[in-house]
Design brief:
The structure is a homodimer of 124-residue chains.
Chain A lengths: L10 H14 L8 E2 L2 H8 L3 H13 L3 E4 L3 E4 L3 H27 L4 H15 L1
Antiparallel strand pairs in A: 1-3, 2-3
Helix pairs in contact in A: 1-3, 2-3
């Protein structure tokens, strides 16, 4: 798990997002143990309180769970839950801003769909 | 022309973007006179050098032009030129990141296109 911090978001938020991403992309699997708050803090050279804040968001969402005296693990169903959340926000995060821009620059929905096909073709 | 600065981008860049947006959305029309660098600086309570930096980008792109001793104006063809630029970057700025996210969260192109139709339907 390699971290590089950007200045756009608070560090605790970047930790939350990065762990969640690693679960979605399969780098962290359900049942896997994740580093403890103190290990994270040491690894990333950040304040333990900051690491705890980022991690506890995922504990509160039941994406991670703690086994007392053993460590912290990825919950069963975590990946599906994170994917569902991101699917739910996809329209607001991607579709709506794209249509706003398309309106401004006079691109039709047909042209957008064609660009999707072209971009997809380029990737195959 | 109302400005509010965000912290994400340097102020000179926000000035460039905002004037360009006003040309695209028609608030500033081709041939319209725009405030001088010093008027901008006063209006926005910023350093004249910052205002000049933001404005000169548009002068260099021939979106704005100066008439010596008279003032600064929106060039003929400015709107079409700005729209063309934004159309050219639309794929990279909107389509590609959207498809990256769709891949991660397992949305098909068909599902994306359906979301576009739904979002469009909501707006009508």
């Amino acid at each position: 798990m390699v971290f590089s911090f950007s200045s756009d978001q608070p560090i605790f938020r970047q930790i939350t997002v990065r762990i969640a991403n690693d679960i979605v992309n399969g780098e962290l699997k359900e049942g896997d143990q994740v580093p403890s708050t103190n290990e994270f803090a040491k690894l990333l050279q950040i304040n333990p309180a900051t690491a705890a804040k980022g991690i506890n968001i995922l504990v509160d969402q039941e994406i991670l769970y703690k086994k007392r005296g053993i460590g912290m693990f990825v919950s069963g169903g975590a990946r599906a839950k994170l994917i569902k959340e991101r699917q739910d926000s996809f329209r607001e995060t991607y579709i709506a801003p794209m249509l706003n821009e398309a309106n401004q620059i006079e691109l039709s929905d047909e042209q957008i769909k064609q660009l999707i096909d072209e971009e997809r073709g380029k990737r195959k």
